[in-house]
Amino acid sequence: MSQKIKVGVLFGGKSTEHEVSIASTKNIIRAIDKDKYDVVLIGIDKKGSWHLNNNYQVLLDQKAEGKMTEEVQSDFGEEVFIIPNEDDSAKLVSLANTANETSIDVIFPVLHGPFGEDGTIQGLLKLLNVPYVGGDVLGTAVGMDKDVMKKLFIADGIPIGDYVCVKHFNRDQFPFSEVSERLGLPVFVKPANAGSSVGVSKVRNEEEYNTALDAAFKFDNKVLVEAFLEGREVECAVLGNENPQASVLGEIIPKHDFYSYDAKYIDEDGATCRIPARVDEALSDKIRALAVKTFQTLCHEGLGRVDCFLTKDNEIFVNEINSMPGFTPISMYPQLWEATGKSQKELTDELIQLAIARFKRDQRLQSVI
Ligand SMILES: Nc1ncnc2c1ncn2[C@@H]1O[C@H](COP(=O)(O)OP(=O)(O)O)[C@@H](O)[C@H]1O
Ligand SMILES: [Mg+2]
């Protein structure tokens, strides 16, 4: 019998970032140490059904590498559901034949955006009583909602730009004239809960404002209108539970008007990463400390990427945290750790071990008296 730890890699999902998740997953399964871990793929299709495939090579062999054309299909593997096991693992059971069971020791949810890094899947995994990689229910939920996140930033003195939060039902209380007078122009309009720049617009006039609100309200009932923060986009990778560590900084140089979905994923020359960022050591240390503080303010554990704006006058504003940052070969998070001296094999190992350590730590907590 294999003594290896069985890692269930959960990917795809009912999310606008389904395809990004597949690209991240390919990279993660390549990196995971196969001498120590057995990788089992659990693909979630766009309807939300789970498909099990014990052969991770299946995904690596798919041809359309890099381009976002693939999705998890029902023939990817047999449809399964997940239930708790007696021994702190989870059990995947075939829908067609309930005698077919696969036990999983730890789950790596490589799911971006809503239903992946917003506390929902974390809630399911917590109920199952199985260790899982990344932030807990609370940390991922508050890190996903840009309005709640900013309220916590304000409470903890983390610098952010001015913004207003518009709800679907009170949209008419935020006319362009008043919002632009308060925030100046341009402004950024974005759904409170989304990611990968989906539904994000840069707005310069009233017509664009109305179009941008329509676009953002497609993805959420809550939309943020933010003052434009002119500056470089600087990112920091954070890793750890009680004592999180910060990586060197990276800088995104978008070639588009801003770091849009196209610049991120469609246009191969849409943006370049500069690692390390062109920031002097003292300022870099300040941003790294702020990234760790941000991570802790948001009750986060495991991993997160903290994104900031750095103005010409070296003023820092935190933009957001990404609880399950992109993990594709060209993504910042794994590259930042490589530049800090951690290989992707070491990084994935550490992430899985952090999940197990947190689970063991929390086992001492009583849920009944
Ligand atoms: N207030 C802002 N000022 C300047 N640029 C912004 C602002 N908000 C967003 N952007 C630009 O839009 C991109 C996506 O916005 P972001 O808030 O990071 O959303 P997402 O969660 O989808 O990544 C940022 O990387 C940046 O290029
Ligand atoms: Mg972002």
Task: Describe what is shown at a glance.
The protein has 369 residues and is α+β, with helices and mostly antiparallel strands.
CATH class of the largest domain: Alpha Beta
CATH architecture of the largest domain: 2-Layer Sandwich
How is the largest sheet built, in terms of strand order?
6-5-4-3-2-1-7
CATH homologous superfamily classification of the largest domain: ATP-grasp fold, B domain
The span between the termini is: 38 Å
Q: What oligomeric state do the depicted chains represent?
A: single chain
Task: Estimate what percentage of residues fall within beta strands.
Answer: 25-35%
Share of residues in helices: 25-40%
The number of domains: 3
- Mind telling me the C-alpha Rg? 21 Å
User: Which stretches of 5+ consecutive residues score pLDDT under 50?
Assistant: none
Mean pLDDT: 93
**Count of separate DSSP helical elements:** 11
Bound ions, cofactors and other small molecules, one mention each: adenosine-5'-diphosphate, magnesium ion
Shape field: globular
State the total count of DSSP E strands: 16
From the 3D structure, determine the CATH topology of the largest domain. Answer: D-amino Acid Aminotransferase, Chain A, domain 1
Structural summary, described in words:
By secondary structure, the chain is of the alpha+beta class. The chain folds into 3 domains: 5-133, 3-Layer(aba) Sandwich (Rossmann fold); 162-227, ATP-grasp fold, A domain (Dna Ligase, domain 1); 230-362, ATP-grasp fold, B domain (D-amino Acid Aminotransferase, Chain A, domain 1), CATH 3.30.470.20. Helices cover 32% and strands 27% of the residues. It has helices at residues 18-31, 57-61, 120-128, 137-144, 146-155, 176-183, 206-217, 261-266, 281-297, 332-340, 344-363, and strands spanning 5-12, 37-44, 50-53, 78-84, 90-94, 101-104, 106-110, 163-167, 187-191, 201-203, 222-227, 232-240, 245-254, 271-274, 302-310, 316-322. The strands form 3 sheets. It has a 7-stranded mixed sheet. A 5-stranded antiparallel sheet has the order 14-13-12-15-16. The chain has a 4-stranded antiparallel sheet with strand order 8-11-9-10. Strand 12 (232-240) and strand 13 form a beta hairpin. It is globular, with a radius of gyration of 21 Å. The chain binds adenosine-5'-diphosphate and magnesium ion. Adenosine-5'-diphosphate binds next to strand 9 and strand 16.
